[in-house]
Design goal:
By secondary structure, the chain is an alpha/beta fold. It has seven helices and eleven strands.
């Protein structure tokens, strides 16, 4: 009999701005696609490159019932949709589990899968920045939500008269030498400082010993943290790894 850990599983993370799907063989990410919106047609390459034994899906917003039903047929019913009542391989201490974002739970489960019993601060730098604590006992303790890089840049431009719209780019030093570099230093450095401050507290309070970054802007923030002498790790497929861990926990 084939073990769950040996099966080919597709994980689907539908975020605020895009959908990311990863095909896993064992614990290795074989292939992935990123789509602007949920589309079964866009996912077909993952299903055509080899037999898929199961699928797990999470979304931060609206879920399309027709999309899920088509997915369910593709995997002969072996579809797990992550909800607030899904059994998890980690404990969750949170005041309202029913409002806790599934992507945040999955990212924490991914951190636990990377290094069991090692506390981590998990920062997902996407449309929003979520900074969450997984303590050294493998328990999700909660976290913070704030605007992501694009939202911060956009709001400075939209709600001021003269500040230009600036995109993310590497910066040198703590302070900018013109308006654009000052905005970049302020926005990118501010996000890095936010993460660093949260990590300092989480280390003292919950025994966290690492910063794990994921999301579209993870590499950018990793560079800013490194320039300030703060170590961090980038795991682009962290949410997918967590979804894989949750699937195996439910179907082992």
């Amino acid at each position: 009999m084939t073990r769950t850990s040996d099966k080919r599983i597709v994980t689907i993370d539908q975020g605020n701005s895009s959908l990311k799907a990863v095909a896993w063989s064992g614990s290795a990410a074989e292939d992935s696609v990123r789509l602007a919106e949920a589309s079964v047609e866009g996912l077909l390459p993952l299903f055509e490159n080899g037999e898929v034994d199961g699928c797990v899906y999470c979304s931060v917003g609206h879920t399309d019932a027709k999309f899920l039903e088509t997915l369910r047929r593709l995997v002969d019913g072996r579809l797990l949709v992550l909800t607030h009542s899904t059994p998890l391989p980690i404990d969750v201490v949170y005041g309202s589990r029913d409002t806790l974002g599934n992507d945040r739970v999955a990212a924490a489960a991914g951190a636990a899968a990377l290094n069991p019993w090692q506390g981590a601060l998990v920062a997902d730098a996407g449309t929003a920045l979520t900074v969450d604590v997984l303590d050294c006992r493998g328990c999700f303790r909660g976290g913070n939500i704030s605007p992501g890089l694009s939202l911060r840049f956009d709001s400075l431009h939209r709600f001021t008269d003269r500040l230009p719209l600036v995109d993310a780019a590497p910066v040198d030093g703590m302070f900018g030498t013109d308006t654009r570099s000052a905005i970049r230093c302020g926005v990118e450095g501010g996000m890095a400082s936010e993460i660093a401050a949260a990590y300092a507290f989480a280390s003292d309070e919950y025994g966290c010993s690492r910063i794990i970054l994921t999301g579209n802007d993870a590499d950018m923030i990793h560079g800013v943290l490194a320039a300030r002498g703060i170590s961090s790790e980038v795991h682009p497929n962290l949410v997918g790894l967590g979804l894989l861990s949750i699937y195996r926990y439910n179907f082992s």
